[in-house]
Design goal:
The protein has about 375 residues and is α/β, with parallel strands linked by helices. The chain has helices at about 15-35, 50-55, 105-115, 195-205, 210-220, 225-235, 240-255, 270-280, 295-310, 315, 320-335, 335-340, 355-365; strands at about 1-5, 5-15, 40-45, 65-70, 70-75, 75, 95-105, 125-130, 145-150, 155, 170-175, 180-185, 205-210, 260-265, 290-295, 345-350. A hairpin with a 2-residue loop joins β5 and β6 (about 75). The longest helix has 19 residues, at about 15-35. The structure holds adenosine monophosphate (AMP). Adenosine monophosphate binds near residues 232, 237, 238 and 268.
């Protein structure tokens, strides 16, 4: 993610993809031009990078010139379009290809057509790297379109937001949703995730989603999901990924306006972690941290057996099921430490001590994020 002035932008089209799009346009146009020497007319400022890359790739002789028209002020296409600057050469009888970085409302294009009306060119073709069909309000034909994109503000590769961002080699898209704080509370069964999540959600105004709790709620209500999950949970095994991922997605969707989430008991596998990244990405957001409560195995077994006396949870009542849950954790879940460490998002916290001591340790980590 990048910040330009007051706004955040997320990666949208990579440098490699832009390069491939430009190459495709070059191939199409070169084929259509046959033996003619075209004049490529770039529209400044936005098209400078596109035109430069385009003509470097163009395999045959060509001429290049620029005209300047500005239609952007800040984020919106403004009503008044500045007049043409720079068309000094005689283009009569020539094949002219306009190279635009982006066409949205089509106002700039209208001005281009007006300007070329009396130039006596043999052929005027329009080529645009990006095209926003939802925003386009005109009828002028677009002869070559690099890529159609949604009607969202983009920067990079020549395109700017209030002067910034033109120099970035890839395309970034404006982040439109509010900033969220999303935490993964991590640790083996009995580490105290649920207890601590209850404090954290109050302090930071976050939605707490415990996949174990959602499964238990479904079991209690005898839903199909509950019946399916029960067979795994009773043995201390993990519920299959796709079932869990679908359920988690639905829980997040129920809280579309959340300030952020505490995920407790999820993700538990690499597939779940990847699904969670995808989900956060679709919300223009991300996981900010995985905070792990670190507790010794024997302490866990003791705690869970103690909890089993009152929790009514079948999987807390039997030591062999408890040990199986801990084994599942080390076999399938503990690897997620590497997943988040690789992104510099893993924070280990000592999970032994009084509840309030541990809460303070967690708060200290979150406050620094
Ligand atoms: P918990 O309440 O987090 O200890 O979870 C209790 C049980 O619910 C686990 O032993 C699993 O059977 C199931 N479960 C909870 N979360 C997940 C998950 N993310 N993936 C698979 N199974 C889960």
């Amino acid at each position: 993610m990048i910040k330009l002035h007051d706004l955040y932008f997320k990666p949208f089209i990579s440098e490699q993809e832009v390069d491939a799009i430009v190459q495709n346009m070059v191939d199409d146009i070169a084929k259509d031009m046959q033996d003619d020497i075209p004049v490529f007319v770039g529209i400044l400022n936005g098209s400078f990078m596109f035109v430069s890359d385009f003509v470097k790739k163009y395999p045959k002789p060509c001429e290049v010139t620029f005209i300047k028209l500005a239609s952007y002020e800040g984020l919106k296409s403004t009503e008044d379009i500045h007049r043409l600057i720079g068309l000094t050469q005689d283009l009569s009888g020539r094949k002219v290809v306009i190279l635009e970085d982006i066409i949205d409302s089509g106002k700039t294009l209208e001005e281009v057509h007006r300007i070329f009306l009396n130039e006596g060119v043999d052929e005027l073709k329009i080529a645009t790297l990006f095209y926003k069909p939802e925003a386009y309000k005109k009828d002028y034909k677009l002869h070559y379109v690099g890529k159609e994109i949604p009607d969202k503000f983009i920067v990079g590769y020549g395109l700017d937001y209030d002067g910034l961002g033109r120099d970035i080699p890839a395309i970034y898209q404006l982040k439109t949703t509010q900033h969220m704080t999303n935490l993964v509370l991590f640790g083996p069964p009995g580490a105290g995730k649920g207890t601590q999540a209850n404090f954290l959600k109050e302090t930071y105004n976050l939605i707490h989603i415990s996949t174990g709790d959602v499964f238990r709620f479904n079991i209690k209500n005898e839903t199909a999901l509950g019946m399916l999950a029960k067979s795994y949970m009773d043995k201390g095994e993990l519920v299959p990924d796709q079932v869990t991922i679908d359920m988690l997605n639905a829980e997040v969707e129920k809280n579309a306006d959340a300030n952020g989430f505490i995920f407790d008991g999820f993700p538990r596998t690499n597939a779940q972690a990847e699904a969670l990244d995808k989900l956060m990405n679709s919300k223009d957001s991300q996981i900010n941290a995985m905070i792990a409560l670190e507790v010794d195995d024997e302490v866990l077994v003791e705690r869970l057996l103690e909890r089993g006396k009152t929790s009514g949870r079948k999987d807390d009542a039997d030591e062999s099921i408890i040990r199986n849950r801990i084994t599942e954790y080390y076999n399938k879940t503990a690897i997620l430490k590497d997943y988040y460490t690789a992104q510099d998002k893993y924070f280990g916290v000592d999970g032994v001590g009084s509840i309030s001591e541990i809460t303070e340790r967690l708060n200290a980590v979150i406050d620094k994020l």
